[in-house]
Amino acid sequence: MAGISADFFDGRSSRRRQVTIAVKDGKVTVSGDGMAFEVPVAEVKISARMSGMPRRLEFPGGAAAVVHDNEAVDRAFAVAVRKTLAHRLESHAGIVVAALILTIALCWSGYQYGVPWAAREAAMRLPANLESSIAEEGLKALDELLFRPSTLNARHRAALAQTFAALRDASGLPVSVRLELRDGKLIGANALALPGGIVVVTDPLARLLGDEDQIAAVLAHELGHIQHRHSLRYILQDSIVALAAMAIYGDASAVAGIAATVPTALVHARYSQGFEREADEYAYELLRKTGRSPRALGLALSALEAGAENGGESNARDKSDAEGGGVNDTGKRPRARDFGYLSTHPSTRERVQAAEAAAR
Amino acid sequence: MYENPPSAAASAPPEAAKRNHEFKFTGDAAEYFGIWIVNLFLSIITLGIYSAWAKVRKKRYFYGHTWVAESNFEYHGNPVAILKGRIIAFAALVIYLGSGYYSQQLALGILLVLSLLAPWLIARSMAFNAINSSYRQIRFHFKASYQDVFMAIWPLILFVCVLYFMPQFKPEQTRMPSAQEWATLFLPTVIAMLAYPYVVGSIKRLHISHSAYGAAPLTFSAGIGQFYKLYLAALGIAIVGILALALAIFVLAMIPVVGWLAIPFAYIFFGALLMGYLRARVTNLTFNSTALDGHVALASTMSPMRLSKIYFVNLLVIVFTLGLMIPWAAVRVARYRAEVLALESATDLEAFLAQAGREVGATGEEMGEFFDVDLSL
Lengths: 360, 377
Description:
The complex is a heterodimer of chains A (about 350) and B (about 375).
Chain A (H helix, E strand, L loop, with lengths): L3 E6 L7 E8 L2 E6 L2 E6 L4 E2 L8 E4 L5 E4 L2 H7 L8 H7 L1 H33 L3 H17 L1 E3 L4 H18 L6 E7 L6 E4 L3 E5 H6 L3 H16 L2 H20 L5 H35 L5 H16 L37 H12 L1
Parallel strand pairs in A: 9-11
Antiparallel strand pairs in A: 1-2, 1-7, 2-3, 3-4, 5-6, 6-7, 8-9, 10-11
Chain B lengths: L13 H6 E3 L1 E2 L3 H17 L5 H14 L1 E3 L2 E5 L3 H24 L1 H28 L1 E3 L2 E5 L3 H20 L13 H31 L1 E3 L2 E5 L3 H30 L4 H31 L1 E3 L3 E5 L3 H17 L5 H14 L1 E5 L3 H8 L7 H4 L10
Antiparallel strand pairs in B: 1-11, 2-3, 3-4, 4-5, 5-6, 6-7, 7-8, 8-9, 9-10, 10-11
Helix pairs in contact in B: 2-3, 2-11, 3-4, 4-5, 5-6, 6-7, 7-8, 8-9, 9-10, 10-11
């Protein structure tokens, strides 16, 4: 058999020598450039094959030969298939295409089902008091920044408290879950669920929804956010997506970091829509349980939207949600609420229709 | 596709070949795509465990396809060592994020402890990378003490200390913040901005001047002042760029639909321009100040405009393919970086290498101790 030509380095200096390598009877012979030696094949360490890069044959004592002809090395040394497995996977067109399709499928299903599932399972297993300190702190901060004490009269307040208590008892949530009333000028007619179990209703919302069933529908929706622990799941989902995006995009240098923000924003919008639907469904159930019609939620949403279009003092918007303390869309103009997929809420019309369907 | 570099210098004129040796990157986007997607797939189905092996294959690919003077570089990192480092880094991240959920102050305390460990971690990871890189069967080395690294990154540690010990600022609606409150609000940012060029420059200096190729030490001649000059110019570009960007967005916002859709492109264009300028200038300054044993110098002639253009196209393509063209983008950058890099030797390079690149012994035992913490993630 003809020898394999190679660059030889002795491992003590970076001098390059051109040599010929031959394998015969369990021995490797290296010769050329004024040198010649022989070592048993078993003592030669062959680097794993990768792309068209030259192979390195390491000899005892730190010397190595660099060979460009990968096929010749595999043949001459009868390199086991196992040793070239990664290279075979990476260079086989069919496997690369299969890996591509499977990776896309995995990312898609992870985004669709995996991340929400993992966050839900984790959130439901974490102790409930984890969130309670966040609720108290959050309410304190909101009181300083946004809220004024409620100006509703005592009778109105008592009626709301009674409605809330009845709903909470029917829902089976602990008594620590409570209702707070506030006059929130900046956020208009709004209701929020703080993580850990505080529902805040603003005066404009209480005034706008005169009908007791409609108020109950809004409260039931907020209790849905608490029951399903949406704020905690939101934080968990965001962390999982951010870590995954970092792992995939981080591979490509910091430049791709800018690109990584795009999927994160899309994911953000999608997940909070899912939460709103889940809270709506919970509300239908709770309304039925307390002898009301799910239609009340649809009527409440329509009333809020009408209030928003009349503008002015009430400045009502679609009800807010539980994310990150519930004020995340404060800066948004009321008109921006119905941008479909990119909005953090499903469109009001869609929700009203869903409520009508649930009432049937 | 990949082409074999000539294994002998026979084709080149002997005199020119001796003096100036250009780097060359022979990787191919389609080929690297196969490696990348298999890496990604295996990393996902092993819940991230394969990522350590993936990193080794990625580094082997980029090192192995980088050639100079008819030889390529090689990477020898042990995936198990990298996996250990990643598990430690992941645990630290979870502890930091988890503690932030309870108390911001506790999280900052943990960050402070981590930043005090940072010099040691940086020294270890630089040593790991050096010892696992070789050229012509001679390994690189890096040796620096905790103190050496601390002196290079102390402003970062100061930054975390200020965050930790500073009173928390609470906004109140009723009045304007006092002078002291303004100070606590902006002090960390001011420290970070003033110290940034120092940290970048001193980390480059630390990295190179504490490294060696075999027994031949590497030297670094640039002063920190040169980094400040460079970042000052970048600040000027950023200010002009932000004004231009604001104007562009203002104009584009008035053109319905087409203009609105163009706004993200203006943003990407600005990002690529600034990043391209900075990376090109920092790369040139760093390489052009690096020499091996005083005989062989590195020369980098990267053009900020060319690099910005490469970044801009890369970003657009990555965004529109949801990341699938990352391998293509990575190969493009590697090819350009190699294209503009050369070794300049005062004497015959082969003769010098045969002499200078002596291996220092007894490195085998140390290698097992080191672990990679991959601070770059």
